[in-house]
């Protein structure tokens, strides 16, 4: 029988909720583009409840224990206990918002490990080269929270451009000095907005920005169909270096891999328009931490927002917590209660397939059979 090690973020400070702001979730018929929603044989949770924290357990305990498997759930991903459990685990489940970093060293110390599941999207917390070398299958719940992240991106763009967060802080502090706030407030209308990567999230961002009467740009290793470019009025650029000088706002929606790591450093940021805004809900290491701080201090960037940090959770003294003109959040964009219902169901679907010896959906696969596979082959590169 398998040991499943599941790493989830801590419960709310006041304890796991027994009531919620809304009753249930809207029903979706599918994802844009035709991909179907997760389709496990059953679920043991209530959609709309908090599933991504320790007590939520992604709704997996009854399912696994009734089959005779062992489920270990913890938020402590860097302890001796985690290392001991990992040594015996056949499956590790982790979320991008609270990643259990499966480094090459950890994978080498986990001889029984066969499957690493990302309850969400983005598997860069797993050393994919090591997973390939050791025959570990890596899977994620593709598309489960792509729209959730896209909505967060649009919110952050508007928050920065309209200077919303300082305006809200003025109200909380009992103030009313309008000039202090509007001196950094602009309209998004008429701006040039570009996305680095136009996959599921990037394309969803472009579609949601179209009604704002902006000029839209994108770069991606896979060019979009001509009819999509025409529909949205998109301008394609061969790479980020070619795109960013044209943009007032740049949003990063690419996976982290050798081609994107450190992309937004001093050199690239210097080519952006002075006073541009940069939004990164993809992965923190796509941007150079200190280069972002320098660009905000100098005014080269008017604002930076995102919800991805390195490491996660970010230490209290991380400079992005205190830098100027930022709109940072903890890694929450893809963990709304709506998204949790989908990634919990998708995680169970992946486990059902693995335990029953049936194929995992190709779009969920990142690594299989000692090679990049499925979405992994489309989106990632190895060293």
Automatic annotation (TrEMBL):
Domain D-isomer specific 2-hydroxyacid dehydrogenase NAD-binding: 154-333
E.C. numbers: 1.17.1.9
Family annotation (SUPFAM superfamilies): Formate/glycerate dehydrogenase catalytic domain-like, NAD(P)-binding Rossmann-fold domains
A GO term, aspect molecular function: NAD binding
Positions annotated to bind NAD(+): 146, 200-201, 220, 255-259, 281, 307, 331-334, 379
Annotated Pfam families: 2-Hacid_dh, 2-Hacid_dh_C
Cellular compartments per GO CC: cytoplasm
Domain of life: Bacteria
Binding-site residues, substrate: 121, 145
UniProt keyword list: Cytoplasm, NAD, Oxidoreductase
Biological process terms in GO annotation: formate catabolic process
Subcellular location: Cytoplasm
Residue ranges constituting the D-isomer specific 2-hydroxyacid dehydrogenase catalytic domain according to the UniProt record: 62-360
Catalytic activity: formate + NAD(+) = CO2 + NADH
Function: Catalyzes the NAD(+)-dependent oxidation of formate to carbon dioxide. Formate oxidation is the final step in the methanol oxidation pathway in methylotrophic microorganisms. Has a role in the detoxification of exogenous formate in non-methylotrophic organisms.
NCBIfam families for the chain: PRK07574.1
Family label: Belongs to the D-isomer specific 2-hydroxyacid dehydrogenase family. FDH subfamily.
Protein name per UniProt: Formate dehydrogenase
